[in-house]
Amino acid sequence: MTRLERLSRLHFLCVVSEVQADPCTPQRAARGVRADRVAQAYRAERAGAAHREACGVCGQSARAQTGLCPACQDSWDREVAAQRAYWGAA
Ligand SMILES: [Zn+2]
Hints:
Bound molecules: zinc ion
Order of helices and strands: HHH
Number of helices: 3
Strand content: under 5%
Largest sheet: none
Helix content: 55-70%
Low-confidence stretches: none
Structural class: mainly alpha
Mean pLDDT: 85
Radius of gyration: 13 Å
């Protein structure tokens, strides 16, 4: 998976998790901010403006392999696990 594909997928998951949160709650707002950040990172990556060494989400130093810093990678892993559980996928 390329970095662009990963960001695109991450953004999808962020939006899904945003709309699953109850409207007008702090959780919903926080998830909205996260989705916006990922969308921003996606646009930057597509424009070729992102630094390869920087995390695509928060801008901290990242692993070259994933394009994400350890904290965002953990968050991504948790998000995938949560979505799998939600949709009942194996
Ligand atoms: Zn990060």
